[in-house]
Amino acid sequence: MYFWYRPVKAWMWILYPFSILLRVISAIRCHLYKKNILKSTKISLPIIVVGNISVGGNGKTPFVIWLCELLQKQGYKPGIISRGYGGKSANYPLLLTDATLGSESGDEPLMIFKRLRVPIVVDPSRVQAALHLQRNADVDIIITDDGLQHYALQRDIEIVIVDGKRRFGNQHIMPVGPLREPLSRLNSVDFIINNGAEHEGEISMYLAPLACKAVDGREAQLHHQGAVNACAGIGYPQRFFDTLEAQNFQLNQVQYFSDHHTYKPKDFTQFDKQTPLLMTEKDAVKCAAFAPENWWYLPISAQLPGSFEKQLLQKIKALQ
After folding, report:
1. How confident is the model at residue 1 (pLDDT cuts 50, 70, 90)?
2. What percent of the chain has pLDDT over 70?
3. How far apart are CA 66 and CA 75, in angstroms?
4. Are residues 58 and 202 in the same domain?
């Protein structure tokens, strides 16, 4: 919500009791898991959690893709588990295949699957997802996409992604602010990744745009940097539009959609059909079935320092 990233207004203090309640519940829950009063499951494979302490749009998915590619280059066989936000399957756990629909798996898991072709299991229970992945896929390390607060599954490494521009907004717990947990939670994680800026004690990550690809799946690239239309249904759409302008695209018509929006052809009737339409890779997986030839998506690639790669790989090797 936009007001989370602006100074606190007087009316927002009406929500403050709910923030206190959420903070107390979070603290009690963490304590119960640490004392083994609530069951926490440890599986035999290493678990890396990639999450955040604030709501949405921080750049977690590009980092997960980067991490998988790094592990593959080192000879590991990574798999991914996810809650599958925005999707609903008739059966869980759901092991993704080429026949899986975004409405079943959620857009982010399907996007990652189409990009990397690594085993991915979706389940609201990360424990069930991890066990299913371990038993039914050839993997030797598991990345959980989100799930920092899912303490029922024990983890070996915790990585938090922070939006370098918006940071933590007004620094309050929901619903007054965007935080899921207090900022003090950052003191216990292994790495803090800063998306798009530099900050002391954090690892800088930058997102590099690649060549635009056809939404309908054709082997084609967009060789055009003039006027385009653009849409985005992600946590922080403005970052996508800023990226397009930085690539010298001239934005004609722009449309924001809610994060994880379920697209239908009628959502695009306002766009001029003659002008190329650009969207994010996450949006594209939900539009491929009805996309015309002049719809394109912009893939991005995360870039992180080599020193961080060495630190992370050393920590992973120490788990074996």
Report:
1. low
2. 99
3. 15
4. yes
Please check the confidence at residue 228 and state whether its pLDDT lies above 70: yes
Average pLDDT of the chain is 92
Q: When comparing pLDDT for 278 and 146, which is higher?
A: 278
User: Does 171 share its domain with 307?
Assistant: yes
Strand partners, 145: 50, 82
Residue 137 lies in a domain: yes
Q: What is the CATH number of the domain that holds 160?
A: 3.40.50.300
Q: How many domains does the chain have?
A: 2
pTM summary value? 0.90
Residue 16 maps to a domain = no
Task: Look at residue 56 in the predicted model and tell me its pLDDT.
Answer: 75
101 with 156, same domain: the answer is: yes
Check whether residue 133 and residue 217 sit in a common domain. Answer: no
